[in-house]
Amino acid sequence: MSVVRDLRVLLRFRDFRRLLAVRLLSQGADGVYQVALATYVVFSPERQTSAAAIASAMAVLLLPYSLVGPFAGVLLDRWRRRQMLLYGNLLRALLASVTAVLILSHVPDWLFYVSALCVTAVNRFVLAGLSAALPRVVDADRLVVANSLSPTAGTLAATAGGGLAFVVRLVTSDSDAAVVLVGSALYLCAALASLRIARELLGPDPELVQPRLGTALAGTARGLAAGVRHLAEPGRRAAAWSLASMTLMRFCYGALTVMVLMLCRYAWASDNSGSDEGLALLGLAVGVSGAGFFTAAVMTPWAAERLGPGLWIVICSAVAAVLEPALGLPFTEVPILIAAFVLGLVTQGAKISTDTIVQSSVADGYRGRIFSLYDVLFNVAFVGAAAVAALMLPPDGRSVALVMTVAVIYAVSAATMARFGVSRRH
């Protein structure tokens, strides 16, 4: 099997193995923490959750990061990325423990959201650092394969973390605080795993390192402007268009996420509260989507090599544009679960290709800030989609207008990338 062979080749790189271990532990902890948040905010029996409430929670957790995200990119291009992985995971372990205490204390919602926001903000530093560091631990010939397997393995680890969270809830009588503490322990393990990587290995180059915080932050505006100009250069424009196309796909994913949450909470649950049965259905949807991510990891290296990563993004978007309304409009469990698999496949396939285009087109000194801007685009698109979904969704989550709007956006993404992003092979 090709993916097994490719994985064996990559695992021969000692530093790739070590970076992969940090990713698996870190994103596994993310899965645990995110399920804890979802069950506490959405599926608590005493809460009457609406699409607007879900959108508000997403805005509180993700939009403020858009203000600090650019600083992350500048710091990642000036501070040692290994140290960012170490201290970022240590900080998340501490903050997650604080979240558990707040859950047990039954504090006002805004205080809980502030704690969760802090964990999410640090998470963006860590994920951007992992992506920016990947070209430092594999050679250029294996970068596409590494981009296929490493982030996908992280996504699968997050899915497994979500499964672990469900198990912990069963064992601890639905204790969300206990689940959060498990996530905190995994963040601590990720921090310890990063110590196995040499301090200088992940970059940036020594002449770019600025150890003083004031010095690094003073150049933030200039650094971001330079990053945008870097993307506007003739040799980088395919990266810019792939980011635009991926942002549209992220918008679609966010809108459909809110729809599925509402369907699980109200439309598909036979019990009035919807907590147990709805949560089980959501867990199944997450697992099926994870299978789609894995399939993308198998298919994308082959497809990107033969078609080019830009054309593969076009195909992924076009497939989603056709199949999403066909599977989504019945609003029943089985077609939606099939759609979850398909959307997991095409979204992850497009992301792998986008990561590869950006990494191969962007100079090392700019990668951190570009990937942080990448995350900001993701967050704004996801929150914007949640807001649109809140306006369009009825209480039970069934909206023909939303499904068709998402299909049109997928089609626009495919057309945009086909017109502007496939002019060169990468």
Q: What's the story with the biggest beta sheet?
A: none
CATH topology description: Growth Hormone, Chain: A
Which word captures the global form?
A: globular
- H/E series, N to C? HHHHHHHHHHHHHHHH
CATH H-level superfamily: MFS general substrate transporter like domains
How widely separated are the two ends? Answer: 25 Å
Helix content: over 70%
Low-confidence stretches: none
Instruction: Kindly state the number of beta strands.
Output: 0
Mean pLDDT across every amino acid position: 83
Q: What is the CA-atom radius of gyration, in angstroms?
A: 20 Å
Total domain units: 1
CATH class value: Mainly Alpha
Level-2 CATH architecture: Up-down Bundle
- Which structural class best describes the helix and strand composition? mainly alpha
Number of helices: 16
- How much of the sequence is in beta strands? under 5%
Describe this protein's structure.
The protein is an all-alpha fold. It has one domain (2-420): Up-down Bundle (Growth Hormone, Chain: A). 80% of the residues lie in helices and 0% in strands. The protein has 16 helices and no strands. It has helices spanning 2-11, 14-41, 51-62, 65-76, 81-105, 109-133, 143-171, 176-194, 213-218, 220-232, 237-267, 275-307, 309-328, 333-361, 364-392, 400-420. Helix 2 (14-41) runs antiparallel to helix 6 (109-133), helix 6 (109-133) packs antiparallel against helix 15 (364-392) and helix 13 (309-328) runs antiparallel to helix 14. The chain is globular and about 60 Å long. The two termini are 25 Å apart.
